[in-house]
Structure formats: C-alpha cells, structure tokens
Fold each of these.
Amino acid sequence: MAQQQRARFISTHPQSQALAQAAAPHWLFGVPLHWMSDWSTPFALQVASAQGAHLSDADGHTYVDFCLGDTGAMFGHAPAAVVQAVQTQVAHGCTTMLSGEDVAWVGAELARRFGLPVWQSALSASDANRFLLRWVRAATGRKKLLVFNGCYHGTVDDVFVDLVNGQPRQRDSLLGQVHDLTQHTVVIEFNDLPALEAALKSGDIACVLAEPVMTNIGMVLPQPGFWEAAQALIRQHGTLLVLDETHTFSSGPGGYARAHGLQPDALVLGKPIAGGLPCAVYGMSHDLAARATQAKQDAPPGHSGIGTTLTANRLTLAAMRATLAEVATDAAFAHMLALCTQLADGLRACISRHGLPWCVTQVGARCEFQFGSVPPVNGTQAEAMMDAELEHLIHLALLNRGVLITPFHNMLLCSPATTAADVAQMLAAFDAVLDELVACGALSEPA
C-alpha cells in the first residue's frame, strides 16, 4: 500500500516535484527548514496559497487542513482582521525597537485572559521558554529545572533530556550539544506525584516547566487531581511553575490553565497568538516580575541574554492585537471546540467500526488518535504507542484524499474557519484509509 500511495502522489504532483528539484541544490535537505522534509511525501509538497481551513498546492489540488501549520495557524490561514492589521502596519513601518499604541491594549488583554499581570514578548515559543528560564534562574538563584519525560518546549537545549531505564539521558537526536544537560535538568514521568515530591525535596530546582497536557509525544492528559497536588508540592518547596500553553491554548480563550483553575507563576504562549506571524509572549506573576526586575537591576551593565532586536516589533504587535480582539474570540472557541468534539467522536466511531485497539484524546480544539486501546498516562507509554511507519502511511493516504494532518504524530486541529463539511470529509477519508489498510493486511480486524 505504501508504494501505491507514493506512486499516486508522484503522478498527481508534477509541479511540486519540479519545484522541489529546483530548490534542492540551494537548501539543506532541499527545504528552508529541514522539518519540511519530515512529511510522508516523496518530495516536499509546494503550497500555492492558504485561506481559512484550506490550502492549495502548486498542482492545483485543494486540501482540508487539520494541521494548520502545526498550530501556528490555529485560528485559520489569513484571518481577515490580521490581514488588514498587517497591511496597515506595513505601510507605517515593521520594526523600530520602540513601543507603540498597540502595546498597552495587548498587555491589558493578555492579563485579562490569562490571569498573569506582567508580560514580555519574543519571536517564538522556543525563545519565550528560553528567556523565562533565564529570568527564573536569576530570580530564584537556583540552577536546575524539572521537565517531564517526552516533553517538548521548542529548541531549548535544557529540555532535551529523557528517562531511559529510569535514568536521565540527553537525547541522542540533539545535534551539536557539547554540554552535559543532565547536570541541570531533572526529568520525571508526567502524572508521577511521588517522583515529583522526591525531586523537589532537593531544594535546588528553580522551576517546573511543563505543558499542562503533554502534546508533542502524542497527547497525555493529566490524571484527575494531578495538577492540584503538583501545584501544592511545587509551592511547598519554593519552586516556580512555568506552563507552556503554545498548544493547549486550544482549550479556550484563556488557555488550559484558566479553563481548569491552574495558577502558574509564569506562562508561555506562542505560534497562533499573532495569527501565524512569528511571535510569542510570556507572562509572570507580580512576585516573579518583582524578583526578575531586582535581579536585572543588581546585575552588572551589559546584555542580559534575553531578547532580540526584532522582538516586540510593530508588525507582530499589530497582528497580536487583531488576533486577540477579533479572531480568537469566545465565539470562535465555541465553534472550534464543538467541531473538534464531533471530529473526535467520529474518529472513535471509525476506529470502533474497524475493531481497532486505538484511542482518541481531545484537548479543546485539538484531538489525536493513538495506537493503543487505553490513553497513555506518561511519555514512556505514549512513545510506546507510536508507529512511525504506520503514521506516515496514514498521513500520505489522507493527503492523497485531500486531507492534511500534522506530520509528526496523529494530531488534528479545528479552526474557526473549519466547517462541519470539512470534518465530514476528514472522517470519510479516514474511514476509507482504514478500509484500505485492512484490505491490504497492514491492519487486522477481529473476525
């Protein structure tokens, strides 16, 4: 089946193939970001345009997009309000390294939505996480951080540590790192309260950095009561809680923490916050902000290692204001969450109809099917459910049927522009792919 799907893609995408071949001599791995070569396609799909929940390729094919730029376009491609704001701002300058009229409104809205009073900007969630780690370490005087096994917080080197046979080990996939990350990074399993308490007792951990729901090794939900107990332990030991809500922003207008009553000391929001423009923000409690300010004032003059020249540029601030004011609204989230529930229920029905031992997990407007009958409770279990070959085969077969999902695992995201017809098309394609997989023996159904 895999060979047939690849042949079908090649025969129907001659322009994409020609453009990919033309780019190959001048770009590492043939693409401007090597992740673009991680899709299941024989060569990079070449996009011509993207609007709402659909995109078109160089060969004129149109796709229903449930990947949405791996969350960067969570609110749809080219939202009208963001397009207008960006067009207007471009004519008045993109970057000045100075503040402007959008700043006060955006800061107040971030505080209102997410419950933290003091904010800073960055160009990506990776930078926001990296910068927050600096502020937290400076504010607490502690050097270590704690993460959960299988986590992902962008390209922050410190978090690339996993548990292997119960021992911390730097990930082999991390290129070019010459320092021993295990000296300053503690890693435990998600949902493991005894391990969390044991780690915190050392008294040298500056912060716990976590997604409130793990989303990058397949979705892993917190067990009932986990975060309530974890927050109490974290506070008890003088450690700070930093939540990365780059993906879990899909939970509602104020993200997962606001929807579920969590009270982090700091919060990161990236990718979709400015309608897809490169932008992120991070917020702090009053206490952390005061301690960070004091640390900066006590430091010698010079570069703090926090921020870049293009950070908080006028273009992204205008786009962020438009996104928060007119795109990421309560009504938009209500639409997204309702459609994603339909999608998740439909996936479960397809899986049940084929008698497959798979599960479906949902976090707001995001859902995922996983190759296990019971949802995972930690990163080790989630990784064990993965099957890269099967994932790629399903993704390519869906793509050949006009549906795009995230290439790295089986995640689907609904936007304000996604329709019931889009969900129906996805479910019909998924059902057909499962039929074909069973027919060719790639999957087996009970008699």
Amino acid sequence: MKDRVEYKRSNEIPGLVLSEARFSDFRFERHYHLDYHVALVTEGVQRQGFHGETLLLTPGSIQLMPLGEVHDGISAGDESYTLKTFRLSPQLLNGLGEEISGQDRFPALGGAVIQDSSLAGHLCRLHDALRAAPPGSEPMKVQSEWLTLLDRLFVQTRMVKPQFVKGTLTQVQWQRVRDYCDAHLAEKITLEELAAICNLERFHFLKLFKQTVGMTPHAWLVRLRLERACSLLSHTDRCLTQVAQEVGFYDQSHFNRAFRQAFGVSPSRY
C-alpha cells in the first residue's frame, strides 16, 4: 500500500494540528519538533529510537513527545502502520496547563509512553471527530471531550496533580446559562461563552456544570434543542428544515439522527 499522510488545522481548537498517516516504506530520520505531540499507533507497529533506547509503539500505545526531543521512527516489520497525532503549539499547551493544573505555568512535560487501550480509543475517536467536523458544526462536544481527555492523560502520567473541583454553579450562574442558551439557541454556543458568563475557566465550568446538572453542557444543550423542537413541531406549521435551524442544528440529517436517538422516531413522525 502506498504511503500517505494528511494534515488538518483544527477550527474548534486554535493551535492544534491533526495528522493521520499510513507508512510502510517511509522512514522518519532523526528529528525534533517545536510543538508537543500526542501520538497514537492504531494499526501495525512503529519502531522508534528515543533517548538511546528502542521503543515499539503498538495499537493502544499513547506517546507524549516533548518539544526539542530527538527521535526517529520506522515500521517495525514488513507491514505498514497507522499513526494519528495531535500537535499542540506551545501557546495552546500553556493555556491548557493553566486550566487543567490550576497553576499559572504548566509543569514541564516529559516524554512518556503509556498503555491504556480505553484512553487510546477515546483519543482516536476524538481525533476522527475533529478531522471530520464540518464548517458550522457545534464545537462544544469536542471542546469538552478535549479538555476531559487531556486532563485524564496528563494526570495518568503524573505530569500534573489532579485538580479536584468541589461544589456546584450558583443559582445566579445557572440562571445565566439557561437564559443565554434560550436567547442564542439558533446559534453556535461554545464552551468558552458559557464559562465566560459564569466568570469561570472552561475546565472549572465543565466540572461544576456536571456536578450541578448531572449532564455535560453539550448533552444538556442538545436536549434543550430537541425539547424546543418538539414544541415547534406540535404548535406550528414550520417545515422540518426551519425547525432544525431555529433550534440550532447545522443540518437536517444531524437533526434527524439526534431526534430519533432521543425519542425513537424521526421528526416527521412526531
């Protein structure tokens, strides 16, 4: 199979570049990066030279590669391997550090390889979702999962201490969130916007929201959109396309899938 590699800059997460590659003959000569890499081998095996050691990266492996570290990479055998990579700019990494660690500066992150098939699977699906996200899609779900998974990853490697967020949103904050979502339901609503109206960082808001409501902000917002859609379908003669747009679904097929998943029938049969 011919070698291939694709890159995509994330619209939802500025400073993040995604890459997916399938290599059999291509060899990474000794090199380094000026950004931080979180890499996953999803098929095959990559053999890598790093710090004078030989590493074998297999499916389920997650590698953290710091800035400036010299390494190489090649297929470990005659078969090809597939590699998915999150490339985080220094600016993005520093911003995440403040949110996840609760400190002004992110602790120095070293290199590591961990074996966690569950976390690798979640990261792989997030990578696919970020690469496939069409223009105008709702960014909140992937933004929330991005923060949650990186927190889990960095805590698991003991590079940051877990930040325990206690308590809930205040009644005033919760009312602000509901009022804002009601007023902007037809628009894209981001995690940053909801956190800002509560005067909180995104990660802190995410934790407090779930402890307050019992759902993630994205799941709660999707349900609100669907409940409003039910009301419009029951009391107006708007067509399905109008209803989908008025409650904030970016296309009809997305609306149909979400509605069927929630209520067991398509919007046209409601």
Amino acid sequence: MKLKKLTTALILATLPATGAFAAALDRSGQSIAAFLQPGNYFEAGISVLDPNVSGKMNSTAPASNPTLGALANTSLDDMAGDYYFPQAALKLQLTDNFSFGIIYDQPFGADATYSSSDATLSAPGAPGAFQLMGETTEVEVKSQNISMLFGFQPIENINIYGGGVYQTVKGDVKLRGIAYGANQALGLYNASIKEDSAVGWLAGLAYQIPEIALKASVTYRSEIKHEAGTTESGVSALLGGPFSLNSNTNITTPQSVNLDFQTGIMANTVAFANVRWVDWSNFAIRPTAFGNASETLGALGRGPVGGFDLVAYTDDQINATVGIGRKINEQWAGNVSVGWDSGAGNPVSTLGPTEGYWNVGLGVQFSPAPNYFIAGGVKYFMLGDAEAQPASMFGTNESVAKFEDNDAWAYGLKIGYKF
C-alpha cells in the first residue's frame, strides 16, 4: 500500500467538508491540513450554510420577566441567516527540512435575525407597542484570519511548526422587544463594533509514516485580544432615556486545540478523524453602556449581581468527526463522515439558539490530472434542541423560548493544485 496509490484519497480525507454550524461562534474549524500536504501545494474553496432554526415562546413566563406571559406559545420565525465563507492556503517546501505556509479563513461568525408572529405588548412609558423580538432583533459577527506557519522537519517523519496569526473582528447587534426589557432596560439597543485587528500565535507537531498513509498532528492556537471601537445607542430608562456612547469593547477570541489523525486501512482507503476543543467558557462581550445598564439591573434584583454580558457561554466546545476516504480510480475518489458537536452550554443565548449537533457528510473529488483536483461536499446537520435566554438570565436555568427539531445543510467546493 504505497503512498502514490493513496494520494487522491489523502487529499480528500483532509477536505474540511463544507463548513460548520458549530457551538457558539465557531465556523471554519481552523484546519491546517493544507500545510501538511507534501511538496508545494495551493488550495482555495468556499463553504455555504443553509440553516433552518425556529422556535416558540415558553407556555409560562419566567419569574424574572412575568410580562412575557402575554406572548406564551408565540412562534418565532426562522432566525438563522444563510452565510458563506471562503478559505485559501499556500504551502511551500523551501528545502528538505523547512516549509512555509499561509492560510486564510474566517474562523468565527454569527448571522441571526429574530421576528415573532405579529405578537405585541404595550410597555409602560414606551412609545407604542413592542414585538418580542420584533422590528427585529439582529446580530452579525464577522472575523478573518491569516495564519503564517513555519515548519521544521528534522527527519521525514516529524514536522514541528509554529507561527503568527493576524486576525480582524467586527460586529453589529440590535436588540428589540420585551425579552430584553423593552423601553425600560435594553429593548431598544444598538451596538456597532468597528473592525479591529490583533495578533496571536499557533504551534504544533505532526508525525507521519507515508508508506501506510499515517499522519497525526496536534495544533494549539492562542487566544487573541481585541480592543474594538464601539458605538452604542438606543433608549433605556436605566441610562436616562435616549443615549449614544462611543467607547472600546474588549473581545478575546478563544484558544483552541485541534487533533487530526488519518491512516491507511486497506489498498486505496484511508480512515480519518479530527477532534477540536475551543475555550468558549471564558469568552464574553460586554460593551460599556450595555454593561452599565446590566449592573443597574443587577442592583435592582432584575439580573445577576454585578451585571451581565451581551454574549457569554457556560461550557467549552468539543467537536469530533470520523470518516473514510476511498480512491475509486485514477480520477475519482469519495468520502463519508459522521460528526458531533457538544455545544457550549444550555440554556443558550437567544442570539444563537442551538445546542450542538450530529451530522453526516458526503464528499467527492475529481482529478483531471495527477497534480490538481476539484472537490465538493455536502453535510446535513441535525441541530440540538435548546432553551433560549436573554443575557439577563445567564447563569440561571430560566429561559424564554424553546428551539426544537431544527436542521441545516452545508455545501462546499474546493480546488487544489500541487506544483
């Protein structure tokens, strides 16, 4: 079972099958598989996600917000927007012992829009009626990463690598409705987080036995700290009525560890697995005006003492995928995979109301010539049921809505070239 007989299947097995609907804000999975390809290599691809996430208000109101009882059992329309993200990588084998690579991806993101089925409730002192999530509540988060890797191969079987990471993040949030306190608290709140750049690092170790197509690697990525300029505006009795504030918001994207493994199991066939851990339990975003209002609510007994974050998670994420890739002939190969994601805690934020998933995936690869290929894949995600809560209920078992029986489809396309 020589390496040349497995080349096509090897590349397919490392195809990060078409994007993710992972826990918290995790998206690309931050794979470095392209950097571990032999020789000089280039790839570019795009992933598209089409989620279907809807829910229903609880039949009884939480004790901390009894006015929500007027919206019992109100249906919440599909709130997860379609999105896509590109990726690209270049790997150069400079000498027998040294390699260099650049990887571009969009590791973290969110795109959610809430609306309710025309349910409204008048709020005392408020100008008119407010929908639960209506007008609507929206969140959008985008990030970009450029990872620069340097590898040292003291012998053929070992690759020690590390490098720097340049990252940008930006976001926009709009909260509406009595779930966030309507005009009395944070129910008319906007935050525009301007794009900010910062740097981090990564390091890892890979081991391979080419004759049996065995390859194993572990990669650590550091957290990256941002201080992003933020404009907050809205109406809140807790902040003296209409307000507008420019300040800086601290955002620290989480550290993570990726474990990747593959091995030949028979002629023209490889088995592969990857496991990813992300430190979401230490992630939080608290803009200044939002934080001031939340601290006031806490002092009034309407939220945690000391305030609460706009976005935070209780648990770390663990994600795992296993599969088999097989070379069918000199031009065609395919793979199948099964994936699982733990989620990042339940109840979950109303800005991302799913709790992990199971998925199944199929991939196919066509190689018109030995040095390049076109690969595509599709995954079906069975999203975990979740209890959703606004930020003021974080750390409690209270929730305002249930999201059940949701799913998503993901599609991916990639080209690769060896030179």
